[in-house]
């Protein structure tokens, strides 16, 4: 298993796209820091906003960059790994060895989860750092719910928890995209499929709106104002998507 | 050249995605109509946001132009310029006695004709849906107009709106073609194209903020450097006869921007497409 993880990890970083997306992402994060740095208010949505401080800076930074992760960088990395290698025939060289396909899928999923975590952690570290550099520190900060005030330590934990929830949304996206990549034939169609699922989810059920509106969902859920189920659909997406796709890979016709 | 165009045209239609989009146009129109029926409850007759049978085609285009048409253009162009080239299918065309410049223009023409067809089908479906789902009204209120207009005037307005929307899609398409030509893989082409769309969407916000913070007071028209902003509000501003739009020469300015995008990116794409390494 360790070797499978390593081999897949090397293949992910061998694609220039991975490193270039990381560089572009860091550039976007830094630009967004400047953008937020000149603003005095952070907006949760069209209506509610609070003064930007060192304590809540990283949360608003994640909101600004989340669309790049959910709509561009995330899908590209996932589709390249789950569909691009299969589509381009590169996976044949891996599958010629006597390895378990179940484990191969698990290795890909875990590696992508680690890389997504890397992107989220980079945002968090830059956000906390830039927040303390650019914005004044305050003793008490409120978020979307004005009745609940947090001290510096509480605010830090609040940000950390929000980042954790966003990471879970990304994992749900990872499992859903893995299933899509198995169902659909080519990378371009997979990308379109993901956009279709994310946007279509809004029309199908409000419980699926976290796929596209991740940060807005996290804001509301953390303030206790999210009217729909959140953790259950996320968990169902993560685990059901993972299990179904894994078994599907095992029974799939690999002769291509 | 005609045979080459025909072959490109057939290869575009070979994709299921093209048929899928053509079939889903009525569905998209129906969903949009459903959305505007709900929308009408909060906007009384006389507000430009109130939808009637006559202005539904324009409202439906405003709602879907930025997301649906841009993304469809991106996907079709990625298939046509990146996927066919990088997967080697295009070798079978290059084998024949055509110059790469001819192949480029045939691809461009095939895409442009296909988009034109989509726009016509969309317009027809929207006109039908307008009269089925919405009530007719003798007077129409338009965005950026200071007076109501007659339904007869609305016909010309709708046609000009669709024409400009088509021109704006040709503008974004020229950027997508340039991206498709330089990308080594289709995921990269899609990612860069979406990145361009997101940056175009974000630019007006950042420009407004920059103007407010620095206090330079740069002209508001500069935000129409972004193609999606032209698609979002620019076309309505361009077609309006209001004094502010006339003072800024809004129409001329936006047409120049569109022409600039098309000329710059098409020329660059053609140059790279014809000069790059043929041995793939």
UniProtKB/TrEMBL annotation, chain A:
Keyword line: Membrane, Transmembrane, Transmembrane helix
Keyword presence, Transmembrane: yes
Pfam name, any one: ABC2_membrane_4
Record-annotated membrane-spanning stretches: 20-38, 58-79, 100-126, 163-184, 191-214, 226-249
Superkingdom field: Bacteria
Protein name: ABC transporter permease
Native source species: Paenibacillus cookii
Taxonomic placement: Bacteria, Bacillati, Bacillota, Bacilli, Bacillales
From TrEMBL, chain B:
Taxonomy, superkingdom: Bacteria
Keyword entries, A-Z: Membrane, Transmembrane, Transmembrane helix
Organism of this sequence: Paenibacillus cookii
Entry-linked Pfam families: ABC2_membrane_4
Residue ranges crossing the lipid bilayer per the database entry: 17-37, 57-81, 116-134, 155-182, 188-210, 251-273
Keyword Transmembrane helix (UniProt): yes
Official protein name in the record: ABC transporter permease
Keyword Transmembrane (UniProt): yes
């Amino acid at each position: 298993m360790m070797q499978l993880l390593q081999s897949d990890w090397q293949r992910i970083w061998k694609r220039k796209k991975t490193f270039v997306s990381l560089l572009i992402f860091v550039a976007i994060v830094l630009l967004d820091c400047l953008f937020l740095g000149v603003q005095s208010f952070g907006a949760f949505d069209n209506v509610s906003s609070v003064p930007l401080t060192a304590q809540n800076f990283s949360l608003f930074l994640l909101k600004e960059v989340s669309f790049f992760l959910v709509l561009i960088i995330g899908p590209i990395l996932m589709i390249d790994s789950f569909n691009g290698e299969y589509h381009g025939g590169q996976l044949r060289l891996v599958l010629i060895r006597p390895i378990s396909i179940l484990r191969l899928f698990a290795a890909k999923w875990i590696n992508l989860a680690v890389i997504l975590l890397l992107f989220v952690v980079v945002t968090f570290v830059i956000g906390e750092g830039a927040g303390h550099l650019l914005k004044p520190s305050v003793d008490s900060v409120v978020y979307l719910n004005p009745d609940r005030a947090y001290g510096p330590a509480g605010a830090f934990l609040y940000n950390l928890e929000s980042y954790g929830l966003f990471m879970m949304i990304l994992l749900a996206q990872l499992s859903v995209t893995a299933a899509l990549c198995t169902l659909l034939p080519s990378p371009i169609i997979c990308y379109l499929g993901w956009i279709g699922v994310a946007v279509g989810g809004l029309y199908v059920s409000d419980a699926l709106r976290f796929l596209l509106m991740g940060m807005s969902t996290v804001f509301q859920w953390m303030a206790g104002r999210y009217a729909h189920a959140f953790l259950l659909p996320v968990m169902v997406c993560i685990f059901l998507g993972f299990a179904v796709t894994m078994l599907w890979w095992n029974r799939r016709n690999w002769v291509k | 050249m005609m045979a080459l165009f025909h072959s490109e045209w057939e290869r575009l239609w070979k994709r299921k995605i093209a048929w899928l989009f053509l079939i889903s146009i009525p569905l998209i129109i129906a969903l949009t109509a459903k959305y505007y029926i709900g929308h009408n409850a909060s906007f009384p007759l006389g507000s430009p946001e109130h939808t009637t049978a006559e202005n539904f085609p324009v409202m439906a285009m405003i709602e879907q132009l930025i997301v649906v048409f841009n993304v469809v253009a991106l996907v079709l162009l990625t298939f046509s310029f990146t996927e066919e080239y990088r997967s080697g299918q295009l070798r079978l065309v290059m084998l024949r006695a055509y110059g790469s410049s001819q192949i480029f223009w045939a691809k461009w023409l095939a895409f442009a004709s296909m988009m034109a067809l989509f726009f016509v089908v969309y317009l027809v479906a929207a006109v039908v849906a307008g009269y089925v789902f919405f009530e007719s009204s003798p007077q129409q209120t338009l965005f950026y107009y200071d007076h109501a207009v007659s339904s007869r005037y609305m016909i010309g307005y709708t046609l000009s709106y669709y024409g400009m929307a088509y021109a704006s899609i040709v503008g974004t398409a020229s950027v997508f073609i340039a991206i498709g030509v330089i990308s080594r893989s289709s995921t990269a082409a899609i990612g860069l194209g979406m990145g361009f769309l997101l940056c175009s969407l974000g630019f007006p916000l950042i420009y407004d903020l920059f103007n407010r913070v620095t206090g330079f007071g740069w002209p508001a028209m500069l935000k129409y450097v972004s193609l999606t902003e032209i698609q979002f509000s620019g076309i309505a501003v361009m077609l309006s006869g209001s004094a502010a739009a006339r003072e800024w020469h809004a129409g001329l300015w936006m047409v120049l921007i569109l022409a600039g995008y098309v000329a710059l990116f098409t020329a660059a794409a053609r140059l790279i497409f014809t000069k790059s390494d043929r041995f793939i």
